[in-house]
Structure formats: structure tokens, C-alpha cells
Design brief:
15 helices, 6-stranded mixed sheet, MetalloPept_cat_dom_sf
């Protein structure tokens, strides 16, 4: 056997060579990364791959695909007894065997006090596919089978400072934890990744790869112990999959049904990707037969195309902190209606008549049934990426909205759409995402959405027109400039944050409130500040201690009261604001006022003429909120 990693140097050029022609699951490829050595520094130059080399005894030859221009594209490798030569891009390297693994990654794993990190699972404990050998699989062992060495650094335990913390993390707290943790790593590509074992997420998720919004993404993931804990074989099996899945995103692997959105686009597997037997699929969405079908057939492996990516993807497409996750803001084709649609589902996008420049662009998504009642999943918000949104800008360029935070949903409760529940609604802020602000200039934008239903159907909405008006007054210009900063966009995505990394954004929103408090857009600055003040905030310090800032209900009430009276906010956001305002009143000790806010919420929506079915849901929500606040008190 000659497969593995080889290293060699020719003058100031260094080669990391991957030979993959025999051994476990060979992909029949040779690939490599080239670096320039200057003094005590090493810089990346480019990568190449030979996808179908000829192999004759110890000699491997083929035409290479390079990330850089070279007149010599033929690659020739000769290996005898662990060493040999490699002719690449006009240079010849003396190479020697370095590792049986194609790539090596350092995993730094920290866990919050009270959580128990996953160790390993014996795959033969529960029934599985015939031909898949029973073995003890840790996270490192699962990646080792894919040819990736995952080395675990000394794990850390994060103590909690403060009492009464619910230890439920939200996206803003995870973003802050990442900025603290990664200050030690620096903004540069590197084969290392951070995994936080936290208690739970406010949305009930099992895991999240949350590092998406800067020049060096894919370095931070989290798993949530309360959602995956357990000592049963089923629980241990699910924990293994969750850990491997989230770290797979750090290697730039997309979900199985999203590979057509990669760069370059990859073909989808069976059933639109839902038929993939992969760590990167969702077990509950596997076709056929959902979760039972998945576990009965899953061999605890990556698919062949995923294996090629992990072993032979170009350096910047795989290394953490290099190329961004999935695709960038490059142009895509707007979503088109399918040529035939028998799904029985209808997707609509709605937006207000027009937006001020700098105003957060929020759209309402509505999924309804047409004809016979239908059952599907309830993941309509684009943050879960079962729904994608395309934005055609005034100049004709179409980009994909990519949320700053995306969530892996390992459960998909069934939603039935019928006469008693004719539609489900979600409100989504799409003004800012992983590529920055999407509505930075006045003009007309055409927004479309695509929803992937439980059966794999892809439901496309008609285009929704979003108008962004030109600023009129000097104050309009000043406020727009203050609202369109990059950090301000992150704060809107996160609904506020205490993170020092977003200090400039918070100062800009403070200026909007202090200097332009009567401007219509100041209500959005107040909303972000009020929602952040009303909640507690967990901060992971550089010394790896977890400190909890208690809620400030007084400040929350001050801001959210002004927001609740504004006419510009959409109904779903107004619903959130009023429920959080009620919680702030209860935390201030005025349960009567909290109940009055809920009564006011019901009356407000009644006066808006909301349809009877939705009105019934709002009344139930108000009563449940009252009961929950009373129990907390």
C-alpha cells in the first residue's frame, strides 16, 4: 500500500502530496497543496488534483486540475518503499511518507459545567446494515475512517460564575463566545476547530456551526447536551452523529439536500439528496422510511463525493478559516417555478409597500395548502435552510440570502395544513447575512423563496417586490449611514449583543436613539437595545469562565414600550416584542402589568383585522405567556 500523505521540498517550494489509490475506500485520486517557504514563514500558493490517474506499479500519472495557471498540467508520481519523486507544475520534489492520514486537524473542545461530552459508541449495539462491521466509534475514529486525523487538544471545562442562570444559549451569546475563544487563534486559515459542549439552545437545537460572518469562517461549532444526552444506545448513536455532523460543516460540507448550492455545484443524491446515507443528512428526513430507514441502512460513513471533498478538496475550500461556507455572494439564477407541481402546497412572500434606506428588511413567509390537506415539517424560517431566499438587486444581480446563523434541526415535527390550520407564517429579517447587507441602495428588489417540503418537493414562491426609497432629508441620510454598518447588521441578526466585538455597532445604534430619537427608523434601534437588555447575557471570558449578566427589565421596558406603539413593525415581530415586554414587566415585579400587556396584544391584533384562525392562535399564545410568567413569579 502506498496511499497516504507525503511531503517534499524543491528549493523554496514545499509540497503536501496526497496519494489515494489503494487502502480503505480509495477514491482513485492524487492531490496536493503547494507552499512557498521564505525564511521562517510559509505561504500558501495553490492546490491541484488528478481525478483519474493511471496507476502502473509504483508510477502514477495524470492530468491535473490546478487553482493557479501553469503551463505544465501533467502530474507524475513515483513511490517506492515510502519515498519517491513527484513532478508537479514544472518542478520535481523528493517526497517521503509522512502519515497514513490525508489531513490532520486539531480539535479544541470545551464543555460547560454540568454537561458530559460524548466519548464513543459501539456500532453493533443496535441493528444496522449487513456488511457494515461493528466497531467502537469515537468522533476522532469516525473521521479517521474518512482519512482525516482529528487530534483532541486538552479538553477544558468552563465554570459558571453567577447563580440562577438558565444556561440556555442564544445565537448572540454563541457569537460572543466565539469571538473570545478565537482571539487566541487569529484571523488566518488553519487546520483547527473549536467545539463547545453547551447545555441547551433557546431554540431547542441539537447542534449549530455558528462561525459564518467574517473573513475566516467555519472555525466554531456547538452541540447542546440537554437535547442529545442519554446513556441508552439510541442516545449515544445520536450523539455521535450530531458531533460528526456539526464538525462536517467546519470542513465545508453542506447538508445532503443543499449540495447543488456549493461552489462548484454538486449533483444531488437520490430523492433530491434526502436519500443520501451520510453523516450530513437529517435522519428524520431520510427517504425512504425516515429515521428507521436511515439507521437500518446507515454504515456510519461519509458518501463517496464527501470523501473526495475531505481528502482532495482544494486547501482553501476545506481548511477552517479559509473560503466561506457553501457559496459566496456570487450571482445565482433566481429560483424558478417547477415545470410540474403536484405538492399541494403554496408558498408566498409578503413585504410592506416600501422601506426606508437603512430600514431592516423583513419579509413574511406563508405556506398554505391548495386543495386537499397536506402534512409537512414546520421549518419555514430561512435560518434552518429548508427555505432559501434569492434576492435580485436593482442592477439585475441575483444573490442567495445566507443567514448569519444557521441551525441544524434534528427533529421535524409534522405540521398538518387543513381547514382548521390553513397556513403557517414566519417573519424573517433578510436585510443582512453572511455576505453583509443585501439592500444597500435605493431601488426595486425582487425576492423569491424556495421551501423544501417533508417529501422533498421544492415549492417556489412568486417574486415579491421590495422597494427601498431614496433618503429625502439630511437626517434620513445620517440615520441610513448609521444603520447600514456591518456591526449594526450583525446586531439586527442577533437581536442585540453585549459582545465587545460589536461595540461600534452598539454605539451607532445609541447615536440613532440619542440624536435621532424621533426618526421613524429609531424604533428598530430601540428594539435591538430593548430585546438585549430584557434578557440575561452569557459571556465566555478569555479565561474560559462563564459569566452571566442579569436582565435589565427597566431598560427593556423603556425601549420596548416605544417599539410596541410603533406602526412600522410587522405583525410577527410585534408579537415577539410584546411578549418580551410582558416578561420584562413580570421580572420588574408587576405581574398585573405583564398580563395587561398580553391583553393589549390581543386587542391590537383584533383591531388590525387578523383572520380568525390566526387570532385564535394569538389568544392561546397570550394565555400561555400569562401562565408561564405567573409560574416564574
Amino acid at each position: 500500500m502506498i496511499s497516504g500523505l507525503y511531503q517534499g521540498q524543491d528549493g523554496d517550494s514545499r509540497l503536501a502530496l496526497r496519494v489515494d489509490v489503494d487502502g480503505a475506500r480509495p477514491t482513485g485520486r492524487v492531490s496536493g497543496d503547494l507552499f512557498t517557504v521564505a525564511g521562517a514563514t510559509t505561504s500558501y500558493v495553490g492546490s491541484f488534483v488528478v481525478n483519474a490517474p493511471s496507476v502502473r506499479a509504483e508510477r502514477i500519472q495524470g492530468r491535473g486540475v490546478f487553482t493557479f495557471d501553469t503551463a505544465v498540467k501533467d502530474v507524475s508520481v513515483t513511490i517506492i518503499d515510502g519515498s519517491g519523486t513527484a513532478a508537479v507544475a514544472g518542478r520535481t520534489y523528493q517526497v517521503a511518507f509522512a502519515s497514513p492520514y490525508f489531513r490532520s486537524v486539531l480539535l479544541e473542545q470545551d464543555s460547560v459545567t454540568g454537561t458530559v461530552p460524548f466519548v464513543s459508541y459501539q456500532t453493533g449495539t443496535l441493528p444496522g446494515p449487513s456488511g457494515s462491521p461493528a466497531r467502537e466509534l469515537s468522533v476522532s475514529a469516525a473521521y479517521a475512517e474518512a482519512g482525516i486525523e482529528l487530534t483532541l487538544a486538552q479538553p477544558g471545562v468552563i465554570p459558571v460564575d453567577g447563580s440562577g442562570a438558565d444556561l440556555a444559549w442564544d445565537d448572540a451569546e454563541l457569537h460572543h463566545a466565539m469571538t473570545q475563544q478565537f482571539s487566541a487563534f487569529g484571523d488566518a486559515p488553519a487546520w483547527r476547530v473549536w467545539l463547545l459542549v453547551a447545555s441547551k439552545h433557546v431554540g431547542g437545537y441539537r447542534g449549530i456551526m455558528f462561525d459564518y460572518n467574517d473573513a475566516h469562517q467555519r472555525q466554531g461549532s456547538a452541540v447542546f447536551y440537554d437535547a442529545i444526552k442519554g446513556a441508552t444506545p439510541q442516545a449515544q448513536r445520536a450523539q455521535l452523529r450530531t458531533y460528526v455532523h456539526e464538525l462536517g460543516h467546519a470542513f465545508n460540507l453542506l447538508h445532503s439536500w443543499q449540495k447543488n448550492l456549493a461552489t462548484p455545484p454538486q449533483p444531488l443524491g437520490p430523492d433530491g439528496g434526502f436519500g443520501d446515507l451520510s453523516w450530513m443528512n437529517y435522519v428524520q428526513n431520510y427517504r425512504p422510511n425516515g429515521e428507521p430507514g436511515y439507521w437500518a441502512a446507515f454504515p456510519f460513513e461519509f458518501t463517496d463525493p464527501e470523501l473526495v471533498h475531505l481528502r482532495h478538496g482544494f486547501y482553501r475550500d476545506v481548511a477552517m478559516g479559509a473560503n466561506a461556507f457553501g457559496i459566496g455572494a456570487a450571482e445565482i439564477a433566481p429560483f424558478e417555478q417547477p415545470v410540474e407541481d403536484r405538492s399541494g402546497l403554496r408558498l408566498e412572500l409578503r413585504a410592506k409597500e416600501s422601506f426606508e434606506l437603512g430600514e431592516p428588511v423583513v419579509v413574511e413567509l406563508k405556506l398554505s395548502y391548495a386543495g386537499e390537506p397536506r402534512a409537512t415539517h414546520g421549518h419555514l424560517h430561512p435560518d434552518t435552510e429548508f427555505t432559501q431566499v434569492s434576492i435580485t438587486q436593482p442592477g439585475g444581480r441575483t444573490v442567495l440570502y445566507r443567514p448569519m446563523m444557521r441551525h441544524c434541526v434534528d427533529t421535524s415535527p409534522e405540521i398538518r395544513l387543513d381547514a382548521g390550520n390553513p397556513a403557517m407564517y414566519r417573519s424573517a429579517y433578510i436585510g443582512h447575512g453572511r455576505d453583509g447587507h443585501y439592500f444597500q441602495q435605493p431601488g426595486e428588489y425582487h425576492v423569491r423563496a424556495q421551501y423544501v417540503a417533508a417529501d422533498g418537493s421544492r415549492i417556489v414562491s412568486p417574486a415579491c417586490l421590495v422597494r427601498v426609497r431614496f433618503p429625502v432629508t439630511r437626517d434620513d441620510h445620517q440615520v441610513a449611514e448609521l444603520m447600514l454598518g456591518e456591526e449594526q447588521g450583525k446586531l439586527f441578526s442577533l437581536l442585540g449583543s453585549d459582545s465587545p466585538a460589536l461595540r461600534s455597532g452598539n454605539l451607532a445604534l445609541d447615536e440613532v436613539i440619542d440624536r435621532y430619537g424621533d426618526h421613524p427608523l429609531s424604533v428598530y434601534a430601540r428594539m435591538v437595545k430593548g430585546l438585549n437588555a430584557e434578557r440575561e447575557f452569557k459571556a465566555l471570558t478569555a479565561g474560559k469562565r462563564l459569566r452571566v449578566r442579569p436582565p435589565d427589565p427597566k431598560q427593556g421596558i423603556e425601549h420596548l414600550t416605544r417599539v410596541a406603539r410603533a406602526a412600522s413593525i410587522d405583525n410577527i415581530t410585534l408579537n415577539l416584542v410584546m411578549r418580551r415586554l410582558a416578561r420584562a414587566e413580570a421580572r420588574q415585579g408587576d405581574l398585573g402589568r405583564a398580563n395587561a400587556v398580553m391583553d393589549e396584544m390581543v386587542a391590537t391584533f383584533e383591531s388590525k383585522g387578523v383572520n380568525a384562525v390566526v387570532m385564535g392562535q394569538i389568544r392561546r399564545q397570550a394565555e400561555l405567556t400569562k401562565a408561564a410568567l405567573s409560574a416564574e413569579a
